[in-house]
TrEMBL record:
Residues 1-25 form the signal peptide. It holds the Pfam family SASA. The lineage of its organism: Bacteria, Pseudomonadati, Planctomycetota, Planctomycetia, Planctomycetales. InterPro entries: SASA, SGNH_hydro_sf, SIAE. Residues 282-399 form the Sialate O-acetylesterase domain. It comes from Gimesia maris. This is Sialate O-acetylesterase domain-containing protein. The keyword Hydrolase applies. Keywords: Hydrolase, Signal.
Amino acid sequence: MKSKRVSLLAAACFVLFSLTTQIQAEVRLPHIFGDHMVLQRGVPVPVWGWADPGNEVSIKLGTSITSTVANNKGEWMVKMPPQQIGDPITLMVREKNTVTFSDVLIGEVWLCSGQSNMEWPVSRSNNFEEEQAAANYPLIRHIKIPRVPKGFPQDDVDAAWTVCSPETVGSYTAAGYFFGRKLHKELNVPIGLVNSSWGGTRIEPWTPPVGFAQVPALADIEKQVQLTNPATAAYQATLGTYLKGLEDWTAEAKTALKAETPLTPPPAYPTAIQPLTSHSSPTTLYNGMIHPLVPFAIRGAIWYQGESNHGEGMLYFEKMKALVGGWREVWNQGEFPFLYVQIAPFQYGSESPSILPVFWEAQNKSLEIPHTGQVVIHDIGDLKDIHPTNKQDVGARLALIALAKTYGQKGLVHSGPVFKSLKKEGAKLRVTFDHVGSGLVSRDGKPLNWFEIIGEETDFVPADAVIEGDSVILSSPKVKQAAAMRFGWNKLAEPNLSNKEGLPATPFRAGEVPQRDWLSLKVEESKEYTLVYDLDLKNLGRKINYTFNSSRDFTTPYGRIAYFLELQKIGEETQYVYVSMDAFTTDITKIAVPTFESKASFQTKVSNLNVISNVPGIVTGKGLPGGNIEFWPSNYGPLNAKNIPNASATLWDFGDEPSEPSDGYGCMQVHNYEAKQTIFAINQWKSGPGADIGIGNSTGKTRDWTFMSNASQYEVKRLRVLVQTQ
């Protein structure tokens, strides 16, 4: 009986071994290959997969037949001859088993990638019911790559091709579908859309390591990526150092165990060499969602991304070079077309209005990358929704570029007006454009908007803009001699300049912004004063580093003290305030930032305020009563201990009380208590970029900018302290 059981067990093991061997021997292909797929026409077609090492694999695509042998890792790849459009064909791959993919089309294949505006489905786009009912396009095929970040390149994904129909189209990438639909109609060819996108993602995760290596400006990211690759010297050196430390600790631990003595914890594993696994980390989406597609033949890529990177300005251009260059390198099929969408205007909360235009500028500059094209959508965005639902026009405009630049259709206007040159003509500026099509127009019939000019004695002001041929003439009665201009330079800008074909102009700036001294330009009184301190507030910190400081050598008596604060956010109008007053101290070393070292501490009323400012709401004039200052390096609370008129006892404003520690938060404020307002404030300077800076009353829980931590918002932040000598 025992012998029979052993025999049965042996037989079962043999069957299991045979099945396992058979499974191991089965040829397989990555899931980018499947029923209903589209293969790129007119180029060699890479076909690859896995089989037993050394085994022969036979491949038949349509009428083309070839074979190869799996290498010692079980990998195999062939390039089938270029295929032409025709009836659906079959791809058959055979080793010990046969894999067959049917209903295979030959046509145009495009990779569709980016963040949520590329992932955005047809079902959530304009007029879905109508689009769904009309979506009978069996020659358009779509595959959605699952959202999987990985620390190392993956060989495969779990995805399947679908045929476009009213039942399937709702889940397709909308921008990609409307792009592909126009190509299909114009070219009369099958279209394959490979949708590898993920909402909210940055550009860095989509970029392969070789892309970062190509761009010197991204050396820090490249170093981070290399440190996580076990094959690199950097990784091995870091791990070796850690292991040596661990060995030393282990020896100490053994000694401590015998001696029954305390022991410190072991060294922590270096975080720098741990795999990158987050969907926000560099290369992870390339590894998990792009690498499994390579080298599947494609015509090109469309890209809709940037909202998650929009605050980093021109650095995005460097990252675009890395992405495009990296993809082209790994695909090894030349400089394939890369078409992208300039992100739409959007509120972005309380963010400076000029941060987004600087990002648009980086996207414009990305056109310098060969064989790229940019779609501008400032006329079809939604200021209240970061996901504009008009994806029909987005896709159609992408297709226009492809038809003109990739497929060589003649006579197509595929771009809106693009800046060409700037010329000064007296007090005016002439801006000339390329891509004017059949002429420049105002798309809504109203005067051209969002043009601004700047002169020697002004900041940027709205310009009168008049179309003249392929140019726009700019002028303003406020500008005697225009020096520079900008167009659409605001996060909410929806400019109306377009060509007659309905394609909008992209925001840009041109010319040389003049250097201006607002103090001498706007404050006549300042000519009677002598500069003592000049402080670039970028240099705030525990130690104040003045650009200019003559206080140690200053011995002349003075009767008045003046402060001039100017603030400017990127691309915005300069805000300034000038306030002078009768001297509140004879010690000139105590009239600037009241640091603990200066021993300056004042909470006192000041007389005869003269105030000049361009900030709305600031009470200006000469000889104003109601002045008081709060200068101290200590902490402070809202209690109105000095009974300053109109001040609150519960709100930080112009009547606060200093408190311990004496070297604490820090306050430098000038007020007009009769007007119930802060004239200017500089607080918490020891925190540098986290300092509080402001002109006028702040809003929220304070009126004197306490706790605002807003210094980093300003590109220009400068304080000058002057005295009027007697």
